[in-house]
Amino acid sequence: MLSRNRFDLLSSLFSDKKILIVGDIMLDRYYFGKTERMSPEAPVPVVDIDRVVDRLGGSLNVALNISTLGAHPTVCGIVGDDTEGQILKEKLINNNISTDFVLTATSRPTTVKSRIISKDHQLVRMDREISEDFSKELNSKISKCLSHTISDFDAVILQDYNKGLLNHQSIPLFIEMASSHDIPVYVDPKHTNFDLYTEVRLFKPNISEFRNFLPDSTDFENDAFSFSRQIKSDILMITKGADGASLFYKDEHYSISTKAQNVHDVSGAGDTVISSFCLSDVCGASPEESAFLSNFAAGRVCEEVGVVPVTLEMLKEIHPYLDK
After folding, report:
1. Rounded CA separation 89/63 (Å)
2. Which of 9, 115, 190, 300 could anchor a disulfide with 162, C-beta 3.0 to 4.6 Å?
3. Per-residue pLDDT tens for 9-57?
4. CATH, range 4-26+57-110+130-321
5. 3-state secondary structure of 178
6. Radius of gyration of the chain (CA)
7. Reported pTM
């Protein structure tokens, strides 16, 4: 499927690529503590917090994966005029991720996902967000800032979390902007906007999203080919967790297995898949080669505890699986 020399050549080209990631920006906040007593106010545990960790979330985790693979990511999205927005900007800069198109909106707070964790178990998650579609004003502001610079990028990733940035007005506009400059578009969707992502290079839902969109599906392979033709995507890849992925390209269906040895945490694996697939593809890999590499990358990060981006060093661990 892939020789060692071929892999080394492809991965050596990552550092030349500039990738634009357009999507919902989030702050992932983790409260770690101990639980040793119950609250006298309600039948709930009391967590004594001893550590708070802030991490890049949403589309920013895709950008982080692009960065740790050695390429040059730029994020386009919205943060609120608040402390959390400033924290995210600082973290992006510290991780060599461009903030040129991170805009500030006074009408919406920065999306924050807070998790309280005790003894390696998540007890509760608290979300602060506004998930309604962005206003016409915000849509226009984003598209205007990209219109004269999108040609500088080698690829565009649309990372959809149903938080408002990618909507029925902005999605066709972003795709048209990229297509007018022959820039390939890679999509990690949510099922709400499935059929808006037409004529893209890659459409990558997970299996549950695909089944939610086609609840009456009785023939997975035929329905996948039919859907791909409907949206006119070059490539459809449906990720299936521990079962790997199904790749549909032209008239071929490839089953790609995962290489994870010990799965600890699947969080963020989808972000790793689209990041490594996009980079491999724009560097000249075949769709099957890109799917193979991206599923290895996802399996590798699943061996780590927590959301961990794939690095070029981790990806090079694929060597034993390659033909010599």
Report:
1. 13
2. 190
3. 999 999 999 999 999 999 999 999 999 999 999 999 999 999 999 999 9
4. 3.40.1190.20
5. helix
6. 20
7. 0.92
